[in-house]
Amino acid sequence: MTSVLFVCLGNICRSPSAQAVFEKLAAEAGLTGLDVDSAGTGGWHKGEPPDRRSRAAGESRGYRFDGQTARKIERSDFARFDYVIAMSSKNLAEISPKAPKNWGGHLGLFMDFAGSPDTDVPDPYYGGEQGFETVLDMVESASRGLIAHIIEVERNQPSSG
Ligand code: 4NP
Hints:
Blueprint: E1 3-8, H1 14-28, E2 35-40, H2 52-59, H3 77-80, E3 83-86, H4 89-95, E4 106-109, H5 129-155
Parallel strand pairs: 1-2, 1-3, 3-4
Helix pairs in contact: 1-5, 2-5
């Protein structure tokens, strides 16, 4: 089973959107049995549901945010997840020192899977509604790339059992 953790700053806008989009597009691509979650590098919004603007924009495209609650990334996440995916290079710089040296997973930027020159999903928190649509556009593109990557990796893995 492949496990993916999406990480942003507050865990109420970008990474919950990434989780919602990735879960739906993965299911549509026939990629099942995933463990997907999201977290923030900061803990200010711990326990809160995703931002209502992220939910409104995402739900109008058919994505579901049920059961999502903000939390801060913790060291044990590296034992649980194969992929720890940062929304921006700033997020990645925060996470990198926390990764155990012998961890065998993939830590990197979400936009590396989008096939575009962009590196960062921009923080929409202090901006207008268009920012939330931009987040969804970028996250949809990167999700498609990450899904194709995981399907390829799983295909090349020796089957267990
Ligand atoms: P996110 O957006 O990192 O995409 O969840 C933010 C949410 C909250 C804050 C900043 C960014 N904040 O400063 O509280």
